[in-house]
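Handout, section 4.2: multi-component inputs.
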Amino acid sequence: MVMNVDIIFKIAAIGIVVTVVNQVLIKAGREEQAMLTTLVGVVVVLTMVINLVTNLFDTVKTMFHLY
Amino acid sequence: MEIFQIVAIGLVAAILSVLIKNEKPELGIYISLATGIIIFLFIATKLQSVMEILEQLSNKINIDAIYLSIILKIVGIAYIAEFGAQICRDVGEGVIASKIEFAGKILIMVMAVPILVSLMDLIINMVP
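Output:
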């Protein structure tokens, strides 16, 4: 439970960091790098959440005997 | 009392989600998805004990265990379909959400067919 809640904070922190870096890069004129960091941030969070989703599906499968 | 913890997590996640959605709507999806999963996993252990009680009850009543298992599977399908459809609707994909719900309905109907068949058999046997 404690470990699980940390994930939410990590995702939020990554979001804020990506936004800040994005803004800085846009202001500095490097738009393509800004686009790239946004994409990288989204992919990183995606991998984190995919683990959670797999966990959810496994739990539901075992709980409701859906295998 | 676990309800306080769950409500606290939900509120914090909602606030964070609003914060992130303003800047990066793509990441907002992940926050609501992750929060939903975490709250469900938290409750899942309680659900397990309810399932065991239901199984004991069904053993006492002497109904075939297969019927309870079918009902359980239907509830599971309904839950996961609703979860997925709601997340899709949240991000604005109403089309995908309706298709997920439709698929869930078809799957539930397929699962319920054996029960319908045995019910028909019962009725036909009753009528001489």
